[in-house]
Design a protein that fits this description.
Layout (H helix, E strand, L loop, with lengths): L3 E4 L3 E5 L9 E5 L11 H22 L3 E5 L10 E6 L1 H10 L9 H11 L4 H21 L5
Antiparallel strand pairs: 1-2, 2-3, 3-5, 4-5
Length: 147
């Protein structure tokens, strides 16, 4: 099991290994910092393009309704970014559970709900996401996603 999707000079893009949502990526810097301002200048310069590339990979492979890109640092204070696909299926399930939000979805709440709802061990996650990881790697390697 190799959750690595892409690597740059300053960042690693991996599929989340604790949540069985295909296309849920974690973007982490090679530097151990807790905030964006702690990054070196070269890493800061690379951050925008890396996040854009990760969201493009998710969009092209998963085809979600929306891609969330967030940085919280509550559970793990080290700087990292969540690139999360809000698919039709996830949206439908979330709206059924929270009908009051059907017209205006609260992204951070949905992300938290999905991380709990689809939490799984590495083996189960890998079974659910392996084809997506492979597609993302091929797209990344081909350079078609702007990487």
């Amino acid at each position: 099991m190799d959750f690595l999707v892409a690597r740059t000079a300053h960042f690693v893009v991996e599929h989340c290994y604790s949540c069985a949502v295909p296309g849920y990526l974690i973007v982490s810097p090679g530097e151990n910092v807790e905030a964006i301002f702690g990054l070196s200048d070269p890493a800061r310069a690379e951050l925008g393009p890396v996040l854009a590339h990760a969201t493009e990979l998710v969009t092209r492979v998963v085809r979600p309704l929306k891609v969330y890109c967030a940085q919280f640092g509550e559970e793990d204070a080290r700087l990292h970014f969540h690139v999360f696909p809000r698919t039709t299926d996830i949206t439908t399930r979330y709206a059924a559970e929270f009908p009051a939000q059907a017209d205006l979805i609260h992204g951070p709440v949905l992300l938290d709900w999905a991380r709990s709802t689809f939490a799984a061990g590495k083996d189960e996650v890998w079974s659910a996401v392996a084809p997506v990881v492979e597609q993302m790697r091929r797209l990344d390697a081909s350079g078609r996603a702007g990487g």
